[in-house]
Write a structure and sequence with these properties.
By secondary structure, this protein is an all-beta fold. It has 1 helix and 46 strands. The longest helix is centred in the N-terminal third of the chain and has 10 residues.
Length: about 500
């Protein structure tokens, strides 16, 4: 391995067209040298994987090829198990064949895998050109136990409810608990916490006195902090205490360097306990053809675009052709902390996704998006709340979506006696001066096929804003006594509402 050696270039190019006909192409060049972790396994805490990554980095890049098998990852307290380095690819034998399993270690932070300069992405050279393919990250959250306690009272019914434990020590929002270990167990995140109790969403009843294991919180599967030109394909994130993937500029103190050119294609997210993918601060992100299931927490979304500060970014984000099943909520664009005009959040597209059976809320949500967004060609089936919810936003295009059975009851504790949901709901923010302006809702098909409909309105428009268009939507089988194709609860003047029909 001399400096003068000539290496071939391996490129992974993933291109996904935006609706606006612009393209995101992620090219990850790596050296042609291959590295086998087996050569470094002696005394290694990561089955030789970290040592192989380091060796590839020292010669300018390469590919670390991990064979089929289960490899246990160890880590020092407060550190990740794997540090990813620039120009190095990590390639397994397939996500069902190569398993990277985190050891029982409740002190690891901030993620199982992190790019090398995550603690200081403003370094001279930010991390770049990283490819991940063909393996599973199993964070084993159910085994990451901090302490044990018991339920003070029974969980008598399913749904969201207050919970009291015999010891509430350390329980805060996002705390993760394994309730009633055994055949009826479930892992529930604390959605809200106050002195003496917290709220959680249950899918099963549990008896008083049932064992509760308090699990490690705030551990991501992969954190990319200020990294650029990173691609993932056929990677599974399973049983992660927080987000499967976390895209940002910082995990502790503010930094300027945010993530860019991130491609996440054909990956799998199973039982992540906050979000599948969180986009906090990242531009040019393509999230396509992935599948998400059993994502829990707050918001419990497959994809959550949600900055923490006004200076953070989310331009040109394409969320397309993903499959979503049994998550707490659906795809979320929540910009309440993005600044007054969402100036750093242009070009967001949510298209061609299938969102089925959200257990706790909406199918697709857009909050405070002032710079425009496109929500088109999606299929939303049996959401517990509204099919598509747009709040306090402007220039959002909601077109050609198919929505069925909004407000569907999945848990007895969250069922309502009367229909309440809308296929598409547009509303001003009742708590802040954010109103709807220049949004378009057109060509959508909305239906409720249940024997007793839970849909109240096909489209509910409640706004003082103007320049909004609601046209050519087709609605069928809403509440026969109180329902409507389009319900207008705000200003009609300055808005165009026409040619909507009942099938």
């Amino acid at each position: 391995m001399t400096e003068g050696k000539v290496f071939s270039i391996c490129n992974l190019v993933r291109s996904v067209a935006f609706i606006s006909a612009t393209f995101l192409a992620v090219q990850v060049p790596t050296q042609g040298q291959n590295f086998n972790p087996g050569m470094y396994q002696t005394q290694s805490k990561t089955a030789g994987i970290q040592e192989a990554i380091d060796a590839a980095s020292k010669v300018g890049g390469g590919t670390v090829q991990i064979p089929a098998g289960t490899f246990v990852l160890h880590a020092a307290a407060g550190h990740p198990a794997i540090l990813l380095r620039s120009r190095v690819s990590l390639v397994g034998a397939g996500s069902q064949s190569t398993i990277l399993k985190l050891e029982v270690n409740p002190k690891i932070a901030p993620a199982v895998m992190v790019n090398q300069n995550y603690a200081d992405p403003d370094a001279a050279e930010a991390d770049h050109d990283i490819r991940l393919q063909g393996f599973t990250v199993d964070a084993s959250s159910s085994e990451q136990v901090l302490r044990e306690t018991q339920l003070q009272g029974a969980i008598a019914t399913t749904g969201e409810q207050d919970v009291i434990l015999r010891s509430m020590e350390g329980i805060v929002q996002d705390s993760l608990l394994r309730v009633d270990p055994g055949p009826d167990e479930e892992i529930v995140p604390a959605l809200k916490a106050s002195a003496g109790s917290f709220r959680a969403f249950f899918l099963r009843p549990h008896p008083a006195g049932a064992k509760v294991l308090v699990l490690v919180p705030r551990l991501h599967g992969l954190a990319l902090v200020g990294a650029s030109n990173v691609s993932l394909q056929d990677v599974t994130f399973r049983d992660v205490p927080m987000d499967g993937i976390y895209l940002t500029s910082t995990v502790d103190v503010p930094h300027r360097t945010y993530s860019k050119q991130i491609s996440i294609h054909r990956c799998h997210f199973v039982a992540c306990h906050r979000n599948g993918i969180s986009v906090i601060d990242a531009d040019d992100v393509s999230i396509a053809n992935n599948d998400f299931s059993d994502i829990t927490g707050d918001p419990g979304a497959p994809v959550d675009v949600e900055p923490n500060r006004p200076d953070q970014h989310g331009n040109r984000i394409n969320i397309a052709e993903n499959e979503v099943h049994r998550c707490y909520r659906g795809i979320t664009v929540s910009l309440q902390f993005s600044g007054p005009t969402s100036q750093n959040f242009h070009g967001i597209t949510v298209s061609g996704n299938t969102v089925e059976g959200t257990l706790y809320g909406w199918g697709i949500y857009v909050l405070w998006q002032q710079a425009g967004a496109t929500v088109t060609g999606n299929t939303v089936i049996r959401p517990a709340g509204d099919g598509i919810l747009v709040v306090g936003s402007a220039n959002v295009q909601v077109t050609n979506n198919k929505i069925s059975d909004p407000g569907r009851c999945h848990t007895r504790g969250n069922c309502r006696a009367q229909a309440f949901a809308a296929g598409i709901r547009l509303m001003d923010d009742p708590h802040n001066p954010r109103i709807l302006n220049h949004n378009v809702v057109s060509g959508n098909t909305i239906e409720d096929v249940q024997e007793t409909p839970s849909m109240l309105y096909g489209v509910d428009f409640s706004s003082k804003g103007g320049g909004n268009t609601i046209q050519r939507n087709v609605v069928s089988r809403f509440d026969p006594k109180r329902g409507a194709v389009v319900h207008v609860g705000g200003s009609v003047g300055g808005n165009k509402i026409s040619d909507n029909s009942r099938r």
